[in-house]
Amino acid sequence: MPTLEFKGKQFVYSHHLGVPFRELKVISDKSLPAKGQKPSLDDNLIIHGDNLEALKALLPTHAGKVDCIFIDPPYNTGNEGWCYNDNVRSPLMREWLKKSANPVDKEDLERHDKWLCMMWPRLQLLKELLSERGSIWITLDDNEAQRCKMMLDEIFGEENFVASCIWHKMDSPKNTARYFSEDHDYLLVYTKNIAFWELNHLPRTDEMVSRYQNPDNDPRGPWLLSDLDARNKYSKGLYSITTPKGRVIQGPPKGKYWRISEEKFKEMDQDGRIWWGADGNADPNIKRFLSEVRDGVVPQTIWNWKDVGSTRHAKTEILKVFSDTDEREIFVTPKPKALVARVLAIATDKNSLILDSFAGSATTAHSVLEANKKDDGNRRFILIECEDYADTLTAERVRRVINGYPYTGTQRDELHRENITWSTFEKKHSKVLDHVASIENLQGHEYDKISKQIKDGVLTVTGERKVKGTAPGLGGSFTYCTLGEPIDIESLLTGKGLPTFEALARYVFYTATGQSLAKVGEPAPDGFIGETDLFRVHLFYQPNREWLRSNEAALNAERVTAIEQNSKGGKRAIVFAVAKFMSQKELTARRIEFCQLPYAVHRILGD
Ligand SMILES: C[S@@+](CC[C@H](N)C(=O)[O-])C[C@H]1O[C@@H](n2cnc3c(N)ncnc32)[C@H](O)[C@@H]1O
């Protein structure tokens, strides 16, 4: 398979392996726990920090557990002000980045290389977090979509590519565009393992349902016509048919075949499943009953703004939540809730875990909470945002939609829209003006103001009214976290910033087994923290430098006996401690593998 080469690739190739693990630090006063509960890492999470480190911090708890990843990374338009400053250890890389411009702008000839270097390790970690049945959805535009697809083919495997959806995001063309009005973005969809992925069909829209009619009052309910003939060759599909009025149809139209055999046709006619037109003499068609068609419709790759919202809708949604904030200060690139809702409808069930590591204004959380409200679901979300607005925008939106919020604003209804050029205006101006005046006369009383505008060759008439109300709370809760100190050799040696027992337990369990530890209990006499099909893992540790230096911290005969007594099923034991008072030979005979803290902690995955 051809692969994409880019500057820096050899240095970022394994960068995700060397990123230090950090503890997730709960910030209680920014969290919103459920009533009577304490903030907990098992709740929905909003993490303030760089997603490279935050994703790594999630591995010990969430590897292989995320069902759906939706990300909306910087598109690399050259105007977003994003910087590439991952701390990649290679001197060549440092030299390159020292000399090149940050933030990454349009003039930067290496902007694509930098974007790919930024995304590569993050996608590697996202893949680790995804469950075997999970999928990842990435919004992009033509700045990076094609390069990203090649990169995803390499990381996720070409066979796991599902679709490149088109989101028709503009509800009116941009007439100021130099060449084309760019009306769409992409959603690239990959699975962790296509063999295990099952998508949900989408519910029929009201418009689809309304196409089903029941002109003959069939007791089976509304139906839709489908053709009796098709181009596919069918040996039993050539026979003559006589209509109820006696007209003989010699056979299917030229070059076509009836879809069903004569026997089947007669059977269906007997059962009232053939429609001969209102007069009983038309060419026959098959009635397809709404009650009998499959529950949902297969998702299509073109997503129209009428169904999933436009960029304008997204802005209106966020303005409603933050109607007390100056419009100019509001986040500029949100996605509409309905867009994320469609991803959730296709790729999640009521208990799914959803991750968005480029969270922005928290549209993903908003959509997850709405989906839960709608079907009484228990979906959970994890959001990551690096900017300072992680609290004031990302988490604040979630607080507001959980609790409910008052809003004031201007409701704008478009009453008329017409393309207009000077020549049409010259010819038809009195007609146009009359039409606008009639709109004002008829609908003016419903609004505080009717505004008229000609912009970019489009005339719009808009009714505006002040609205005030309270959006009811959707319920839910979340825990707000930041990233703690790296869990590394240095901190264990010096005693500075020693990790908690819980954080170290998760970390050593993950590094030893590659699996995440669901729950960490209190330290046990035999140091047991968790097990997999093959191993039982034990940890003797207290975040106390004196204790770590004392004999108390060592693996001794008493502890080995306790480990042996509690061991079931002959699994091997992996024991983490700072020292041991028995030889490895003796331990091996007892099926115990000793890993010395702190050095053993850094048997980084992938070695
Ligand atoms: C295009 S916006 C996402 C908008 C979001 N989908 C919404 O509906 O509001 C991208 C976000 O990712 C954040 N971001 C960019 N690089 C990041 C990083 N390395 N770690 C965490 N967040 C990052 C940006 O600060 C920005 O808020």
From TrEMBL:
A GO biological-process term: methylation
Residue intervals of the DNA methylase N-4/N-6 domain: 66-389
UniProt cross-references to PROSITE patterns, sorted A to Z: N6_MTASE
InterPro entries: DNA_methylase_N4/N6 (IPR002941), DNA_methylase_N6_adenine_CS (IPR002052), N4/N6-MTase_EcoPI_Mod-like (IPR002295), SAM-dependent_MTases_sf (IPR029063)
Protein name, UniProt field: site-specific DNA-methyltransferase (adenine-specific)
Pfam families reported in the protein's UniProt record: N6_N4_Mtase
Organism: Marinobacter persicus
Record keywords, A-Z: Methyltransferase, S-adenosyl-L-methionine, Transferase
EC number, as in UniProt: 2.1.1.72
Similarity annotation: Belongs to the N(4)/N(6)-methyltransferase family.
Transmembrane segments: none
Reaction it catalyzes: a 2'-deoxyadenosine in DNA + S-adenosyl-L-methionine = an N(6)-methyl-2'-deoxyadenosine in DNA + S-adenosyl-L-homocysteine + H(+)
